[in-house]
Amino acid sequence: MRQWELTPEPALAERDLAADMFNHLGQASFSDAILGQINGYFPAGSCSLYRIWQDKPPKLLYSHSFKRPDVTRDCFEAYLQQGLYQTDRSFDNVRRERPSLLHSTIEDFWNPLHRELVYRRNHVRERLSLARKESDGSVTSMNLYAHNEHSGYTERHIGYFRKLAPLLLAGVERHIQLPREAQATTHNAKRETLFRINPTLTERELDICERILSGMTYDGIAGELGLSRATVITYRNRAFERLGIHFKSQLFALLASSTGPQTTLKPLSN
């Protein structure tokens, strides 16, 4: 495995990638458009963005395959379920240094199960990564993969990756953040509507109703808010009493009637 300190450098390729990112950000076409642009400079059959810790399992934040069967989830499931992350030393130096670019071939992974279950079984031959240490000691890694049908990464390919990697990481992070921001806006709108319907609702009662309207279970609400299930149901009952309703379906109907005919909400079973 080879490693370089990150030194971003402007180039025409960066401007082309930035333009595509701007045009497709937040859209379903984003991943194909970006990987299509990248493949004009070097092979990238798939990509992933994940975060790894030293003391807990990794988390896959984003993945996609381009013009080939998508194996990204299979690769990560093997990495996670087989405990391969526990023996992966790829990013040890990143935890001690500044952001780095890494080039790894299948032979760089000393664990034979890692080579077999993640790489050979899924026809992956090489990986280019931009890895960044986070404040909690974890590492975020943006990865591009060459598969068996691709040529190996050359110095020219790696030079392009060096130029594009920082922009690619920033764009993907922004792309996956947008749905969360839209969801937060929707949650706030529901909360404000409920408060208009009955201003006597308490903050905690609004918390519970907002999450019910988002489709969360009582157990899920309890876990997110740090409450017991019984306490969640108590707050729900108090809120429903203030609103003059008895069932979840009535809560959905109440919100729908207060936000206009264009709002479509799916009632849950009581």
From TrEMBL:
Q: Does the keyword Transcription apply?
A: yes
Q: Can the keyword Transcription regulation be found in this entry's annotation?
A: yes
Q: Which UniProt keywords apply?
A: DNA-binding, Transcription, Transcription regulation
Membrane-crossing segments per the record: none
Annotated HTH luxR-type domain residues = 194-259
Q: Give the matching SUPFAM superfamilies.
A: C-terminal effector domain of the bipartite response regulators
* Protein name in the entry: Helix-turn-helix transcriptional regulator
Species, as recorded: Mesopusillimonas faecipullorum
